């Protein structure tokens, strides 16, 4: 489901910062060689993540769901000089793909790619998180959220992707994924620990700021 007309999306992209050559190549190689390239954040959402990260200037970024590394590279753009980004994904094949691009980037020494189930890795993290991006296994969104909120610094930002679930959140759909995304959205909107904003960017981005 497209949320805005293709022409408008292109107009927005044409009037936003261009993708770096490395991101463009990553995007191209993902479409050529990897299954489900639609999962990649893409130009406009990528620039949004990069700008947000530059505004926050995080010391520590936590990403759940690396895929081929596009969003990780965008989020890394705002890291402080000694900052670090940890990205978790259970798929070793796409992790190997992503790592090749991390190595070619200016953030090679700042990005750590971890292979494993996110719900098992997150509890091993003890560093305070300034910026988190949840973009894996929709069924576990609420669980990831509850695992990450205690790690977030006061004023820290958490972003959750795909919260509109291709528009199914407002349809009659009763499949398990849609029910769980609706439950997650309700949970976040009612959470008094955070300020919360849901934006209709691409497939829906919820942004929360811990009080
Ligand atoms: C939508 S993609 C991430 C896209 C990426 N953030 C981007 O914007 O380019 C979701 C990723 O979550 C990973 N994933 C799914 N279940 C997972 C789990 N339980 N733990 C860790 N990663 C998981 C998948 O392997 C997939 O690569």
Write out the strand line-up for the largest beta sheet, numbering strands in chain order.
3-2-1-4-5-7-6
**Helical run tally:** 8
- Helix % is 25-40%
Question: Radius of gyration in whole Å, from Cα?
Answer: 16 Å
- Low-confidence runs of at least 5 consecutive residues: none
Give the CA-CA distance, first to last residue: 34 Å
Strand content: 15-25%
Order of helices and strands: HHHEHEHEHEHEHEE
Small molecules held by this entry: S-adenosylmethionine
Morphology: globular
Biggest β-sheet strands, sense, barrel:
7 strands, mixed
Q: Which class of secondary structure composition applies to the elements?
A: alpha/beta
Averaged pLDDT, please?
96
Strands, total number: 7
Topology overview:
Elements: H1 6-14, H2 21-33, H3 43-56, E1 60-64, H4 70-76, E2 84-89, H5 92-104, E3 111-115, H6 118-121, E4 129-134, H7 141-148, E5 152-161, H8 176-189, E6 194-199, E7 205-210
Parallel strand pairs: 1-2, 1-4, 2-3, 4-5
Antiparallel strand pairs: 5-7, 6-7
Helix pairs in contact: 3-4
The chain binds S-adenosylmethionine.
